[in-house]
Amino acid sequence: MFLLIVFIVAFAIRLSYTFQIQELPPFKVLIVDALSYNNWAKEILSDGWLGKEIFYQAPLYPYFLAVVYKIFGVDLFAVRFVQVVMSALVCIIFYFLGKLWFGNKAGVIMAFFTTFYGVYIFYSPMHLKPTLYLFLEALFLLTISWSVFSNRRILFFISGLIVGTMVLCRENTILVILFMFVWLLCFHRNKHEKKILINGGLLVLGIILALTPSIVRNYAVGGDFVIATSQGGTNFYIGNGPNATGFYTPLIKHRQTPPYEGIDARQLAEEESGRKLVPSEISAFWYKKALTHMMHNKVDYLKLMWKKFKLFFNAYESPDAEDYYFYRRYSSILDLPLVSFGFICPLAIVGICLSVRESKRFSLLYFLAAANFLSVVMFYIFSRYRLPIVPFFMLFASYALIRVVRDYSLKRWFYVATFCVLFIVSYLFTHLDEVNSENSDALSHFNFGLAYEKVGNIPDAIKEYKKSIAVDPAFLKSSNNLAITYYNDGNYRKAAEFWERSIELSSGELMLHFNLGKAYLKLGENEKAEREFNTAIEIDPDFEKAINNLASIYFNKENYLKVAGLLKKSNRLNPDNAVVLLVLAKAQIKLGEFPEAKMSLMKLLQIEKNHPEAARLLNVVNRGL
After folding, report:
1. What's this model's pTM, rounded to 2 decimal places?
2. What's the mean pLDDT in 364-378?
3. Residue 445 to residues 6, 452, 554, Cα–Cα distance (Å)
4. Mean of pLDDT values over 209-231
5. Neighbours of 447 (CB within 10 A)
């Protein structure tokens, strides 16, 4: 009966929260990572389950979405409902996990913590990995713990199968596997050697069975040995390279959305290497580049690691695309005084300190928690990236509460006082002011604006972009998107104003100058447009659109010599552009270059045989010849 109540309460909370936020723009149309996973899932259904390229990102979640879509149709709510059920089941699994390690009271506390843990509720309906990963992690922790207490061999195999599958959802789980084998070797030396080999072998067999389909598939489509994904090196460089801050920073400024990540990683690596690279080589390139920087900047690297250490344990839930604190404004459930990392973490630190006297008994938990900690701080910090360590913190927090209640009832005041001191110190450490939360508000307003724009609600999109800029005037993405929105809405003066602002905030962004040039053209300010198109061409001499727009300005100024020079280059870049050939021919006629004009028109007629103006101009040229 207790477990049924736990499931019903957890399910009801999560489903109610889902209904509360289902009309929010980013939840209706999906943005950033959620949009990327959704598109990938639909590609799997349309193009086949094998795919065409080596996985750059962890594939399990998009395939999970594809399975749900295959069963229920492409329905966002179907995914959310399935995930809400999974999240509620995690509460029951964690009850058994707590009971297994510390007894029934710990199981009840674990169930309470999980049911009312705010960030678990927040992510439960999101089109993101955490709910699927936490469900798998809960199963893994239960089976591996059960295998330790019961020594049932089949559980080692099942644990291997589950943790191998977890790698396909979150690739740095490989570190968890490595730490698990270190634990087996370190804490089972005195046990029967044959038993260790069998248990370890079953664990390995399960892992291999889980990962083999991905390895074989990657080799089949790309001819390269990649276990799960090829983005490990890129993420390692982002987290430890010269521009590392402890948070995510894109390889190229302002290009942090999923479609750009893999493209930029490949392009930059190949440019520096001077040759084409396969995905595993790209990853190795970035690992090597990061390690080289770390070795040459040891003091700076130690400072960075200290910063990441503090960020990891900080109570603040650092947002990725979706911001927990921002969503609390729209959900009365999230706005309740729910269980938080800022409460669980200090309690867990106390619990770990109290458990040291029985360190051998809890060694598995220590090793797995350490692996999860390192798997995050080796890269960069987001709230959702540290979620896998929360179950361990909940276990030790439960242990701490049980111990302090017992010591209080036995009037062991020294131990109670020790608990209080440890908790206060830990609480103060986890609540250090390390983060500027205003930046996340700017991003959240931007995401809302983006979502409103996607559904055609331009007035609200503009409001959200303006709110984003009000919070952070230096937030380039909002300024640029506001300019694009104004331009598409026909307000070219406002568009020009915000592109000018965007250029001030950026460092030579090609498209900003080009777009500002287009806005000036619409306003009839051709001199300013000419300046911006020239700047764009200076940044990228082969930027065809800027070349063509600049040529149109010179054509109106009757500077046909410059027109001809620009459009000849444009034609070399894109020989099949009929409009370019037509304007080039007109310029050549004005210059009296009839043979060249005839050649341009003949090329045009090869592209469009019945082009009426080309035929007429050809007659003019023939008469001129």
Report:
1. 0.86
2. 93
3. 35, 10, 41
4. 81
5. 23
| pLDDT in the model for residue 191 | 58
Contacts of residue 625, Cβ cutoff 8 Å, sequence gap at least 6: 594, 595, 598
**What single-letter amino acid sits at 281?**
E
**Which pair of structure tokens corresponds to residue 443?**
């991003």
Give per-residue pLDDT as tens, 313-338: 999 998 887 889 999 999 999 999 99
Q: Lowest mean pLDDT: which of 31-40, 291-300, 616-625?
A: 616-625
How far is the C-alpha of 452 from the C-alpha of 586, rounded, in Å?
44
Q: CA 241, 390, 227: angle at the middle one, nearest 5?
A: 55
| Phi, psi (rounded to 5 degrees) for 117 | -75, 115
How far apart CA 354 and CA 135 sit, in angstroms, is 28
Strand, coil or helix: what is 71?
Answer: helix
Q: 3-state secondary structure string, 419-479?
A: HHHHHHHHHHHHCCCCCCHHHHHHHHHHHHHHHHHHCCCHHHHHHHHHHHHHHCCCCHHHH
- 489's tokens: 């809405």
Instruction: Report the candidate in 546, 451, 466, 537 with the shortest Cα–Cα distance to residue 498.
Output: 466
Give dist(CA 344, CA 322) in Å, integer.
Answer: 22
Tokens standing for 476? 């380039």
* Whole-angstrom distance, CA of residue 218 vs CA of residue 215: 5
**What is the CB-side half-sphere exposure of residue 2 using CA atoms within 13 A?**
12
Is the Cα dihedral 575, 581, 587, 590 positive or negative?
Answer: positive
Q: How many CA atoms lie within 13 A of 546 on its CB side?
A: 23
Sequence-distant (6+) residues with CB within 8 A of 580 are: 548, 567, 570, 571, 574
The string of DSSP letters for 342-387 reads HHHHHHHHHHHHHHGGGTTTTHHHHHHHHHHHHHHHTS---GGGGG
State the Cα angle at 241 between 312 and 226, rounded to 5°. Answer: 90
Determine the Cα–Cα distance for residues 103 and 353; give it in Å rounded to an integer: 19
**Range from 136-150, 228-242, 452-466 carrying the lowest mean pLDDT:** 228-242
Whether the CB-CB separation of 484 and 458 falls below 8 Å is answered with: no
Nearest to 82 by CA among 97, 95, 94, 64: 64
474 vs 543: CA distance, rounded Å: 27
Q: How far is CA 217 from CA 40, 150, 222, 225, in A?
A: 16, 36, 8, 10
Q: In sequence order, which ranges of 506-558 are alpha helices (DSSP H)?
A: 510-522, 526-539, 544-556
What does the mean pLDDT of the chain come to? 88
Q: Which residues are CB-contacts of 534 (< 8 A; sequence separation ≥ 6)?
A: 550
Q: Are 225 and 219 in contact (CB under 8 A)?
A: yes
B/e letters for 324-337, b = 16+ CB within 10 Å, e = fewer, are bbbbbeebebbeee
3-class DSSP state of 328: helix
CA dist., res. 239 & res. 152, Å (int): 40
117, β-bridge pairs? 339
Q: Count Cβ atoms below 10 Å from residue 101 Cβ, excluding itself.
A: 22
Which residues touch 192 (CB under 8 Å, ≥6 apart)?
none
